[in-house]
Amino acid sequence: MTARTLVLLRHAKAERPDGLPDQDRPLTDRGHADAAAAGAWLLASGHVPDLVLCSPSRRTRQTWHSVAIAIGGAGSPSVRYERDLYDGDAEAALHIVAAAAKEGQAILLIGHNPTISQLSVLLDAAGQADSDGLRTSGIAVHELPDDWEAGIPAPLRSTYTARA
Q1: Would you tell me how many other CB atoms lie within 10 Å of the CB of residue 97?
Q2: Inter-axis angle of helices 90-100 and 115-123, nearest 10
Q3: How open is the CA angle 63-46-148, to the nearest 5 degrees?
């Protein structure tokens, strides 16, 4: 049985300016640096995605941009911005991933808490997930059986990094 990889990345550290709508919050300087470090980690660990599923918020788009720069010429993934990754729950995220499963061997999903952490817990049969959830720029890698579009099965293996 072959495996596919689903990498979950919580967006990097964002500012909280007064009066700015949540979806328009930008990354801090630290957030840009952490997102670049996440991209470097993905490259070094061999987890360059074929497909990126990203929330359309400013901070997730900026996170992806910094990751993409760090990955450089190692890959040219397709990128889709999915509204339900901004305001949907873990089940909505599961449906998005399942629908996209045939589009890539390695999928990177960039989203928000609590959804991203809840999704990771759903996929973590071994119970390795941090009970506090993924922190900003936190990464969870889930290796899943090749037939995951039939309904996300229990992963073959899950690994975590608190921050890239």
Answers
A1: 24
A2: 60
A3: 85
Instruction: Name the residue type at position 83.
Output: R
**16/53 Cα distance (integer angstroms):** 24
Number of domains in the chain: 1
Q: Is 19 among the domain residues?
A: no
Domain that holds residue 68: 3-14+24-161
Evaluate whether residue 50 is within a structural domain: yes
| Per-residue pLDDT tens over the stretch 109-139 | 999 999 999 999 888 867 777 778 899 999 9
Neighbours of 46 (CB within 10 A): 9
| Among candidate residues 10, 141, 14, 21, the one with its CA nearest the CA of residue 85 | 10
Residue 57 lies in a domain: yes
Q: Which residues of the chain have pLDDT under 50?
A: 1, 164
Q: What is the dihedral of CA 30, 38, 118, 133, to 10 degrees?
A: -50
The CATH number assigned to the domain holding 86 equals 3.40.50.1240
110 in a domain, yes or no? yes
Are residues 27 and 12 in contact, defined by beta-carbon separation less than 8 angstroms?
yes
What is the model's pTM?
0.90
